[in-house]
Write a structure and sequence with these properties.
The chain is mainly α. 65% of the residues lie in helices and 0% in strands.
Length: 171
């Protein structure tokens, strides 16, 4: 059985609600400790792959610009994930210990994707393909690192990256 998060800081009704959902997600691909599923990260894999291909296929920048971020529940309900409806419903019951850092990390990913697209677009406008490749590669790696942080949170870690750490990495 998966360990339960420390719920000492929440009320009895909220604790009972979490425990009930913990039972509902048992034997699914939804983490029992956090009530989150890694399937959500597939949403970001798509844009990272597109950004990584832009240096070789600059026309893909248009696809990257059309990419739209989706919230956790929206993605789940539109995915082929077998427990998509349960995952979307369970999100309302994720303990704040995990939900707050998860949402912070997703916001950082969304912001970095927008920054990456803008930077690559500027590099392309200057015709500097070396810089396009350098930025696409470096910034995609940082997005992937943030996705790893989100994956850790989904699997029970509350560790995040500070915005200042990200700012230093993107220069």
């Amino acid at each position: 059985m998966t360990d339960s998060p420390d719920l000492s800081d929440i009320g009895e009704e909220e604790r009972a609600d979490f425990l009930a959902f913990q039972e509902k997600v048992r034997d699914t691909n939804i983490n029992e400790q956090t009530l989150l599923a890694t399937d959500y990260l597939n949403h970001f894999n798509e844009i990272v792959m597109t950004l990584e291909m832009v240096p070789d296929m600059p026309e893909l920048l248009e696809d990257a610009k059309e990419w739209q971020s989706k919230g956790y529940q929206e993605h789940m309900l539109q995915s082929t994930f077998s427990d998509r409806e349960l995952a979307a419903e369970a999100y309302n019951h994720v303990p704040n210990k995990f939900r707050a850092p998860f949402e912070q990390t997703i916001s950082q990913i969304d912001n970095l994707i927008a920054t990456t697209i803008d930077r690559i677009e500027g590099d392309l406008a200057q015709g500097n393909m070396d810089l396009v490749r350098e930025n696409a590669t470096a910034l995609s790696k940082i997005i992937q690192q943030l996705m790893d942080v989100a994956g850790g949170i989904i699997n029970g870690s509350a560790k995040t990256m500070e915005q200042s750490e990200i700012d230093i990495m993107i220069g």
